[in-house]
Amino acid sequence: IPMLVCGDFNSTPASAPHALLALGKVDPLHPDLAVDPLGILGPHTKRAHQLPLVSAYSSFTRGIGPILEQPRRRMDPSTNEPLFTNCTRDFIGTQDYIFYTADSLMVESLLEL
């Protein structure tokens, strides 16, 4: 089933929500899960999914060619996400994402960063 999951997730690339979307699971030892005073997160087995989601910017910049050199300079090499999608006085970082099902959709182009 073709699917887009996109929006302002208020989560950085190192966060548990990003890991869940990008990797399909969250490591039970992830630091974001260490603080759960109300016990609302439940068992770690439920923090996973089988959707073949990939990040649009991450997948697009893995390509080869000189046309991709400029966009790569605006990407974080450790996460393959944009260096920032939000820039305010108090925060500069990535919180906005476009994920898609790689088995049924393909990225043809993206907005320039």
From TrEMBL:
One of its GO terms (molecular function) is poly(A)-specific ribonuclease activity. Its EC number is 3.1.13.4. It is an enzyme of class 3 (hydrolase). It comes from the Eukaryota. Keywords: Hydrolase. This is Poly(A)-specific ribonuclease. It comes from Opuntia streptacantha.
